Structure formats: structure tokens, C-alpha cells
């Protein structure tokens, strides 16, 4: 059980405490950079050259898809900020129906092409438009009838802040996109969220994001935070990216993960997700649990 705020000796009483579990997943090696991105069909897919760094590599996309199919009930998944379809195609190949949204028409055209070459175009419902406008439209129709996605996957643009020491989740993309606002908009439409993020996100911000979703959905008290799961993808000694699982998908997946023997106290540290993973790997551990302190998002 996370401690009550007033129990945290030496920390600001306005801070909340939360636990987070971190797992490190090694990516299988690919023969070429193109196969790393798209697997065997790399010659048939289309994407603009500037999207190359944004595409979710195939093995990571497939690992996330496996978690969604195993732990998130329902066969319809929203892929918000879907880019050229790295995740959408993986989800559709696994048999899920995918609602996808991207603001860029060329990316939308490429996603539809990429779904076609994978033989899964009939499972993709693709729209071009601004995320907030599209989600508001969907929410107006779905909330009154209680309809929800089995899971929502969010891969926002990372932008220049990626070069900062600690990545700011409230200033993503061109600096005006906040992960907190993005998940807040979509919170009523699912109970399972999968949020892709850079390796230099502070581990406490992963918990803060989970707490924010929880409080928007009405489940948060000021004293407890449902534990998120952070999966860190590494390739050799390189940390590629991370994924924060929030809500039911995190709770269900955590039931299948053997808890580590001790909880590492990070309440006084500003460790990034990558620092957590490196520390774990240096001790030969692939699963870790940490206690963090964070200020709730206002
Ligand atoms: C990191 S990329 C997603 C990559 C994707 N997962 C893939 O594998 O292809 C982020 C995407 O967000 C889109 N985007 C940026 N702002 C948006 C907005 N306001 N609404 C919808 N899409 C947006 C960009 O066009 C870009 O394609």
C-alpha cells in the first residue's frame, strides 16, 4: 500500500506516493534497419522519410499488441496519433479492429496502404483529423451509450524536448501538446491505456500520468495510486523507448509478473525510466518495483 502523504518524512506534504513496476524487455535483433521497423514486408510498405524515426519498430509493436490482446478485453482498439500505422497494422494483423486517427493526410494514406499490403485493411477504420476534435466527436456519441474501446494506444509526437535531460510529458510535440490533456480527453472511452514515451521520462511522471487518468475517471483518492506498469524496450546496451500501461491492462498484467523481493526507494531521486532500467540490468534484474513521490497534475 502506498504511504499517506503525511507519512513521507522530509517530503512536501502536497506530494503523493505511488508504486511502479518496471519490466525490461530485450528486442530481438533484425537483419537490417528496415526489417527492424517493418519485419518481412518492409519492401512493400510506404512512409515519408521524416517518419522513419517515429515508426514503432515491429517487434515492439507486436509485444504491445500481445499485451493488449491478452490483458485488455474487447476487440476494438483506438490507435491515437497513428502515424504511418506501425502499431495499427500490428494490432489489425492480430485480429483486432482498429480505429486510427492522425492529423497528417499523407500519413493516413500510407497507413491505409500499409494495412492493405498486410491484408488487414478491412479491420482498419482510419480518420484524418485533429485528435481532440475527433475524440470529442466520438465521446459525444459513445459516452451516452456506455461504449468503450478494449484499449487505447497513444503514441504522441515527441518533438525537440526529447533532447532535454528529463522529458516533459506536458510539453510534447511542438511544445503545446500535453500527455495529461490527451489522456484526460480519452479517459472515459476505455479502462486500459497504453502510452508510448521516450526513455528519458522521469519514472515519477509515469506514476503521475497514471494517477491523473485515475483521478479523471473518478477512482483516485488522495492517498492511493493504482500501480502502473512501465515496460522498457532495450536493444543491446541501447534503450529504445518505453511504454506506460495504465488501468485494467496494468493491473491484469501485473498479476502475471512475479513481484521483486524489494521496493527501491526513489522518492528523493529524479531518475528517468532509462536510469531505472540500467540500474536493474546492472544487478541482473528484469523486473523491479519503485516507490516514487510526485506532485499531482493541476
Ligand atoms: C510518433 S508519430 C506516431 C507513429 C506511429 N506509432 C507509427 O508507428 O507510425 C505521432 C503522429 O502524431 C500525429 N499528430 C500530431 N499532432 C496530432 C494531432 N493533434 N492529432 C492527431 N494526430 C497528430 C503526427 O502526424 C504523427 O504521425
Automatic annotation (TrEMBL):
<dbReference type="GO" id="GO:0005634">
    <property type="term" value="C:nucleus"/>
</dbReference>
<keyword id="KW-0732">Signal</keyword>
<comment type="similarity">
    <text>Belongs to the methyltransferase superfamily. Trimethylguanosine synthase family.</text>
</comment>
<dbReference type="InterPro" id="IPR029063">
    <property type="entry name" value="SAM-dependent_MTases_sf"/>
</dbReference>
<feature type="signal peptide">
    <location>
        <begin position="1"/>
        <end position="33"/>
    </location>
</feature>
<protein>
    <recommendedName>
        <fullName>Trimethylguanosine synthase</fullName>
    </recommendedName>
</protein>
<dbReference type="GO" id="GO:0071164">
    <property type="term" value="F:RNA cap trimethylguanosine synthase activity"/>
</dbReference>
<dbReference type="InterPro" id="IPR019012">
    <property type="entry name" value="RNA_cap_Gua-N2-MeTrfase"/>
</dbReference>
<dbReference type="Pfam" id="PF09445">
    <property type="entry name" value="Methyltransf_15"/>
</dbReference>
